[in-house]
Specification:
The structure holds 2 protein chains of 2 kinds. Chain A is mainly alpha-helical. Chain A has 2 domains: 7-99, Fumarate Reductase Iron-sulfur Protein, Chain B, domain 2; 109-178, no CATH class. Chain A is 48% helix and 0% strand. The longest helix of chain A is centred in the last third of the chain and has 16 residues, at 141-156. Chain A is globular. In chain B, helix 1 (17-29) packs parallel to helix 12, helix 6 packs parallel to helix 7 (171-178) and helix 9 (202-218) packs across helix 11 (239-246). Chain B is 47% helix and 10% strand. In chain B, strand 5, helix 7 (171-178) and strand 6 (182-183) form a beta-alpha-beta unit. Chain B folds into 2 domains: 2-121, Glutathione S-transferase Yfyf (Class Pi), Chain A, domain 2 (Up-down Bundle); 140-285, Rossmann fold (3-Layer(aba) Sandwich). Chain B is globular and about 55 Å long. Chain B is α/β, with parallel strands linked by helices. Classes of the chains: A mainly alpha, B alpha/beta. The interface between A and B is large, with 63 and 68 residues.
């Protein structure tokens, strides 16, 4: 390869299950954008985002909210006539922006994902009340109150765990994780 | 008797305890034995894939390795858990380098995965392994007069696994017909509930939920049946928020398909934990003739 990889090549390399550069196959038909239930809320539609990646518009792409608005429903991926895994691409952009600390500010997604991963590393299982602290305080007053009301109703129905559950072989579990990524004090 | 490794997943421990309990009640009636996987861990949901893909596969591989030790196929009732484990297995089979790397990590917990078991979603067990005819035979209280909107959601269908029909599936409708209920046709049945966007992008998720509720109600449904705890929470627990945001007055109960089947098999509502919902299904269930 000559020189620096293009942004499209960089992103393609992060698409685990794909071979080659599937993004280059995009014919800009817009099936993904028409299918996506989140598209009306994105600053750029999925079709446009792929176009921008292929045009090497790195900064504008990373500064977009679009990939953090993907709900992972995979509807675009099963409909793409060029068989591009677009939902997989959105995951790749999330990871890329988190590694490089380049995502748009005022998004809840990145902090929520990080807290989620930390919760799992700590106990092996998910625990809603801890996760809630990662996003509750970024809500406006009204949403915050609605959320609190909802939590109370669910608690009265016995649907909110009081204490987190932990797996038994937690020490081994953390050693497994430590062989994949460096985790402070895990191994 | 058919026997499986059962992977409940984090939601079923508390938030979706009714799914857990109704799964056990109904499978017992159908002569299926579910053996809970020993010391299982979280599958990583969608959030883990945002941070590290390799680690996400490793988490699922640990569960798969434990199930393989027991020599039984793994059954997951949550669509997200099912999808994550299913594709982890696929990737591990087709990529020996990935398998080597992950198995090296699993050694730290004395585990190894060779790809010798299958991953199934709970609803497949009812539809394919038990079979619609056999389910029908066990029905003692056919749910005649109950209009059910079978809600597929996303991850039991997508990504596509083989060459199955992901646009117009029918198996959920057929299952509801087998227990005497009337499945309603509505265009949104495979659309997304918003998933974790309910947390990270509230407005977008509520609008997706509204479209689904509207579509199901317009087609005359008394109740929505789900196969996933995330869908259940979004469609049911956030109905009030939808009403506030869009000035609507929806009040449609959302039950797990196992709760509905349980009723038809003669399990008491109490044992199916009917009543732990925020939108009570009692008025809708009184439709049953």
């Amino acid at each position: 390869m000559n020189g620096k990889p293009t942004f499209s090549e960089e992103v393609s390399n992060l698409l685990y299950a794909s071979e080659g550069n599937p993004l280059k196959m995009c014919i800009q038909c817009g099936t993904c954008s028409a299918t996506c239930p989140s598209a009306p809320f994105m600053d750029y539609t999925p079709r446009r985002l792929i176009g921008m990646i292929n045009a090497d518009m790195r900064e504008q792409v990373l500064n977009s909210n679009a990939y953090w608005f993907c709900a992972s429903c995979f509807h675009c991926s099963v409909r793409c006539p060029q068989e591009i895994d677009i939902a997989g691409l959105m995951y790749a952009l999330k990871r890329y922006s988190m590694w490089k600390n380049l995502y748009k500010e005022d998004l809840i997604g990145p902090t929520f994902s990080e807290t989620f991963v930390k919760t799992i590393i700590n106990g092996g299982r998910s625990y809603e009340p801890i996760l809630a602290t990662s996003y509750l305080f970024s809500y406006g007053v009204q949403t915050f109150l609605m959320e609190a009301q909802n939590a109370t109703s669910l608690m009265l129905k016995g649907r909110i765990p009081i204490l987190p559950t932990r797996i038994k072989r937690l020490k081994n579990f953390r050693r497994v994780i430590g062989r994949i990524i460096p985790v402070g004090g895990a191994e | 008797m058919k026997k499986y490794s059962y992977f409940p997943g984090c939601s079923l421990e508390k938030m979706a305890l009714s799914y857990h309990q109704s799964t056990h009640e109904t499978t017992r009636k159908l002569d299926i034995e579910l053996v809970e996987l020993d010391d299982w861990n979280c599958c990583g949901a969608t959030a883990y894939f945002h941070v590290d893909e390799l680690l996400a596969y490793t988490l699922c591989a640990r569960n798969l390795a434990i199930a393989e030790k027991e020599k039984m196929d793994m059954v997951a009732p949550c669509s997200g858990c099912f999808k994550n484990h299913y594709f982890t297995k696929e990737h591990l089979i087709h990529d020996p380098d990935l398998a080597d790397h992950i198995n090296y990590a699993l050694e730290a917990d004395n585990l190894h995965f060779s790809g010798n078991i299958n991953v199934r979603h709970l609803i497949e067990i009812f539809v394919k392994d038990v079979g619609l005819e056999a389910v029908k035979e066990k029905v003692t209280n056919p749910l005649e007069g109950l209009h059910v909107a079978p809600y597929y959601g996303c991850q039991i269908l997508r990504p596509r696994k083989d060459h199955e029909d992901v646009e117009q599936p029918r198996f959920f409708e057929d299952l509801m017909s087998a227990i005497g209920a009337t499945p309603v046709e509505y265009p949104e049945k495979t659309r997304c509930c918003g998933g974790a966007l309910i947390i990270t992008n509230r407005h977008a998720a509520l609008s997706m939920v509204r479209n689904l509720l509207l579509s199901a109600i317009n087609s005359g449904a008394d109740v929505i049946a789900t196969t996933c705890p995330m869908c259940q929470v979004n469609l049911e627990c956030y109905q009030k928020q939808v009403n506030q945001e869009f000035g609507t007055d929806y009040m449609i109960p959302v039950l797990y398909f196992t709760q509905i089947i349980g009723l038809a098999l003669g399990v008491t509502p109490n044992r199916l934990r009917i009543g732990s919902e925020l939108v009570l299904p009692t008025p809708a269930l009184s439709q049953v003739r």
